[in-house]
Amino acid sequence: MLKLYYSPGACSMAAHIALEETGVDYETCSVLVSKGETQTPEYLSLNPRGYVPLLDLGGERLTEVVAILVHLARRYPEVGLAPAVGSLAEARVMELAAWLTNTLHVAYACLWRPKRFTTDEAAGKAISEAATARIDALNQEIETHLAKRSFAVGETYTFADPYLLVFFRWANRIGLDASSRYPNWTQWARRIEARPSVAHVLAKEGVSLWS
Hints:
CATH architecture of the largest domain: Up-down Bundle
Strand content: 5-15%
Order of helices and strands: EHEHEEHHHHHHH
CATH topology of the largest domain: Glutathione S-transferase Yfyf (Class Pi), Chain A, domain 2
Strand order of the largest sheet: 2-1-3-4
Shape: globular
Number of helices: 9
Structural class: alpha+beta
C-alpha cells in the first residue's frame, strides 16, 4: 500500500490531494516540520534530505512534490490528473508546476528560511524583508493567469491545481489577504476547495485556506 509522509499545510498537501483524487487505498504519516520531525534520525533514514513529501511505494521511495504528482498522474491515467503523456497540454501543466517550485516556493524560502542563503544576519534580515514584495509580485502573475481560466491550466482540473492551492493558502498565511488582493485567484480557490478530495485533505490536515 502507498504511504504518504506529509506536514500539514506544507507543499506536501498537493501530493496528499492528488493521492486522494486517485481513489486508491493509502496510508499517511504526519511529520511536523515546525517541530523538527523531518530532522529526526527515524525520518532521515527514510529521506536523508529531510523534506516532505515522501511517498513510499512499497519498498521504493519517491521524494519531491512534482515527481510525486507526475508519478501519480501517469500511474493512474484514468483519473485525469494530467493530459496525455507527451502532449503540449501535459507540458503546460509541468511548466506551471516547475515555476511554482523553482520561483514561488523559493521566494517563500527567502521569507521563512533566509539562513539557507546567507550566514550574515543583516543580509538574512534584508532577504526576508524583501521576500514579501517578491511573493506579492509573483502572486499578481497568478492573478492575471487565472483571469480567463477555470483551472490552473486551461479548462480541466490537473495536478497543477492542488499544487497552486498550497500557495494560495500561504499567501493568506503571511498576511497577503487573497480575497481583496487576488479576486480571480480567490474565485478559483473556492471552486477547488469544493472538491471532495480537497475538503477531505484540508480536514485531515487540520488546515484552512483562509488563515
